[in-house]
Please model this.
Amino acid sequence: MSADPDWRPIFGHAEPYDEQVDGIQAAVETAREDGFLALEGACGTGKTMLALTAGIHLVRDPDSRFERVFVLTSVKQQLRQFEADLRTINANLPEEWRPVSAMTLVGKADVCPYNLAGAGDIDDDTVYERCEGLRERTRGLTEETTADALAAAARSQQVGLADSASASGDGGGATYLEAADEPTPYPRDTPEAAERDVEYCPFYAQFLADLPEDGHPSEAVPFDPTGMGIVEPEDLVSLAAGHGSCPHSVMGALLPELEVLVGNYYHAFDPTTVRAFTGDLVDEDTFVVCDEAHMLEPRVRELVGDSVSDRALSDAQSELSRVIQPLAGPDESLSLSRRFASTVSINRCSVPASQHLSRSSPAAAMLQQQLYHRECMSKAEDANRRASRHPLEDDIARRPSSLQHNSCFAQHAIGKKHPRSSNG
Ligand code: SF4
Model:
């Protein structure tokens, strides 16, 4: 039996293996000394329960500075294992202990009431972009009115519809947006601000209205998580959206209040996610459990790195030489090469550069007709022979620059079809 029996009530099974006892002890002692523990074990040896027991024990120890356990796992099956072990721990805690509060971090697609109801012109593919636009417009509107007034206006649309239906006795009227089988206070469609024709999100408006000016964002959480144990996504949606607030925003406000958070590598290493969402969660008060840590380096490299292959660079160089050298004398060729090099970044397709060249000089305008993606080369040559016009020129003119792909060199390298080749 352990020399530190304090953690024993947290351990969710009848008897720990000897290896688990050693592991929990080592993890607790290492964390108290601000160290890092690399722990290896075969499948089924109970590493998940071991890590949770050590972390929760430290979080509940009043003499320890740890305030939360943050689990990072990149494998969904493992994420489910952490959730299952948390349920086991809660089910076997001494009766007088409160359950361990925990939550798995999920994306907007999983909790946005509009997305879940298939309403508001929002679906899995558009939810992130639509949400950002709606939030921005909602914040913009609060410069002229209050967030409270925006949420109240959306509620009153439903009240008005319900009143007129009961007055006319036709049984029609309000159709409430439902999420997680619970009605929300708003209509199915996103509302527009009166006399402004500006679409906004009433759930986000309600969240902004609930945020205290000087207090802690957790005051905007419209329910008490104490005693709930694991806050499941369905609970989050029905409790937050039922109150009229955005479940994803409420999730962000709730995070610092919970003892265990289960996320993935994005939540700790993706700069955008960290900046917008989880930045405050990883500090010296956090007991971090990194599952599948042998995958950490390649996964994080994927997240934060840009890459281009030698082959792609060499292809780009030979394409440039092929275009520039035959059409310019040595001096002009050199000068064009320099100007061209200044406009071509290694992750840009050559098409925007060709547009730049067309503005540079008459010689460069001639180059434009021959400067195109390598995989379009044969079709383009045929077309040029027939009409002295590259078939992609129309395509280029039709597309805004934001739609021009920015990874064709990488696609060269992995042998994928150029996205425009289907248009050429
Ligand atoms: S703010 Fe919340 S409720 Fe509104 S669109 Fe975004 S995720 Fe959905």
